[in-house]
Amino acid sequence: MSTTFDAKAATWDEEPRRRAMAMDVVAAIAQQIPLTPGQRLLDVGCGTGLIGLPLATVTKSVLGVDLSAGMIDRFTAKAQSAQQTGVRAEVRDLIASPLPPASIDVAVSAMAFHHIDHVDQMLHSIAGCLAPGGWLAVADLETEDGSFHGEPVPHLGFDPAAFLIRMQQAGLLAVSQARVHVMQKPAGGRSYPIFLAVARKP
Ligand SMILES: C[S@@+](CC[C@H](N)C(=O)[O-])C[C@H]1O[C@@H](n2cnc3c(N)ncnc32)[C@H](O)[C@@H]1O
Hints:
Blueprint lengths: L1 H7 L7 H17 L7 E5 L7 H8 L1 E6 L2 H13 L5 E5 L12 E7 L8 H11 E12 L18 H10 L3 E12 L6 E10 L2
Parallel strand pairs: 1-2, 1-4, 2-3, 4-5
Antiparallel strand pairs: 5-7, 6-7
This protein binds S-adenosylmethionine (SAM).
């Protein structure tokens, strides 16, 4: 799976619908979470940084993690060319190699969870590294019929309310869930709603 994303990394940002989704998700995150300079932000499944790098203009500190080395290389190159010195990214499986407790203030993720086999283990790992009062915001596809990818993926999106409950089961307090974007695919003109679920560490 990471080899597939490795191959896509170089041209990932060229797709306008991905950039449009990222802009709306970043705006929704900034509306939901009081972001401030100095917060330690984690971007899970960061890809090339379409979410994490814009958020870094506020928090200054961002750690991107992803299974794809190609995506991490693109993320790092973009951060360096923008001189975002508090930003770094690494290949890391947070389930196998969790971050230390209370090391993150804000965790975000966009369009990665439907690629993650063990969603609840990932939520537990993220919850474990959040500081008290820390935030988690996950954007992903609402439940779809499999046509979004047209090839097998671990999850055909999620029911947003059920996802929020899974965040609670990982030890977080539910804050909100809302539709924040509708992604339009050109072939056949299908549209795919994307939700943002937000929770907080007690
Ligand atoms: C559809 S891309 C989204 C990338 C980026 N967040 C964006 O919105 O452009 C999904 C990303 O999740 C990564 N990914 C999949 N499973 C992962 C896991 N278990 N841990 C970290 N990253 C993962 C993939 O390598 C890929 O870069």
